[in-house]
Amino acid sequence: MTNPLDNLHGFYEPAPPTWTPQTVGWYCMFAVVAITAIWILVREIRRWMFNRYRREALKELQTLTVAEFSVLLKRTALSVWPREKVASLSGVEWLQFLDATIRGDGFLATPGNQIENLAFCEADLSAEDEKQLRELTAKWIRSHRVRV
Q: Considering only Cβ atoms within 10 Å of each terminal Cβ, which end of the chain, N or C, has fewer?
């Protein structure tokens, strides 16, 4: 007597499913996602390159004395605004420009309003005022908005 299981043969295994999309809609979606990703990448690289002057100014701020803050702010402003608009500013107009570009009033108030006096004459400044002035200068460098 023969074993009935000997008459069985292997079953047919279909090919594994492919991971490639089968419709055109998927290719369109992939193209849109790729173009959007490239656009975002290019925009972020351009922004990073444009803001190089900010990174360099913030790095330089760490080594400067309080008397040099006004010069650093002027050089930073001149790197993005036209020379005709920024170079001639001094006194209250310079402080108003600094405040207008960050939408605040830190430079028209104390100790921000002493920034030019400190550049031209030695003045005693408390450690707290120096810290506030350093923070205000860093805030301006990080957050000023360029409107030419």
A: N
Please give the backbone phi and psi of residue 47, each rounded to the nearest 5 degrees, phi first.
Answer: -65, -45
Region of residue 13 (left: phi > 0; alpha: psi -120 to 50; beta: else): beta
For residue 18, give the DSSP letter. Answer: P
Confidence (pTM): 0.70
- Residue 134's nearest CA partner among 51, 75, 55, 67 is 67
d(Cα 95, Cα 106) in Å, to the nearest integer? 9
Count of C-beta atoms within a 10 Å radius of residue 132: 17
Q: pLDDT tens digit string along 106-144? A: 777 777 677 777 777 776 777 887 888 888 889 889 888
| Residue 109: its H or E element | none
Q: Please report where in the chains the tokens 């290719």 appear, as a residue.
A: 27
54: number of Cβ within 10 Å: 16
The three-point CA angle 36-37-41 to 5° equals 115
Dihedral, CA atoms, 77, 98, 103, 122, nearest 10 degrees? Answer: 130
